[in-house]
Amino acid sequence: MDHEHRLADQWLVSWPLCGLDLFKWGRLKAKDSEAEDHRGFPAKVYFSTSHCSSGCTLGDAFGVPIVTLTGFTILSTTLFAHYAVQFTLAYLFGILFQFFAIYPMNKDAGVMKNLKNSIKADTLSLILFEVGMFGWMALVHYVIFAEPPKPHQMNYWFMMQIAMIFGFLTSYPANWWLVKKGIKEEM
């Protein structure tokens, strides 16, 4: 099976699973904003964490080709370059996503106040997402493989998906705390 077919199979498996979660828990609020929400607190935190994770994932997805195409390294390794570029992009996307979630609910506060609230709401969970993700990728890079997989190989992206699961798991408790304290909105 060629590389393109393996990647297509990977996408065909992962995206429907994400869609099932959205269908089960996410459609309630989208269908009727006045509907009573029967989801429990863990499900609401799950979606707050997923929202945070989407910005991180997008930053990571854009960061990998940037580092790969430029040959950028830090301390003679591409791993640290990936960390720097991916974290920067994930942070920018994460804050942007959070801003567009907060601003419509609180337009009267103004752009700068909502931007400040977005940074406050997403920074901790975003950092912990990246800690979980980067920790796994360090294991992949230095322990699991004799030679780390490259971004043009399928096992690299499979390892990235596992890394994103670890990122989700490490950021979920932070999101729980942020939502519980009212710093971040439940979704």
From TrEMBL:
Domain named DUF4396: residues: 46-184
Keywords assigned: Membrane, Transmembrane, Transmembrane helix
UniProt-listed InterPro entries: DUF4396 (IPR025509)
Domain of life: Bacteria
Membrane-spanning residues: 80-103, 124-144, 156-179
Keyword Transmembrane: yes
Name of the protein in question: DUF4396 domain-containing protein
Native organism: Sediminibacillus halophilus
Origin organism lineage: Bacteria, Bacillati, Bacillota, Bacilli, Bacillales
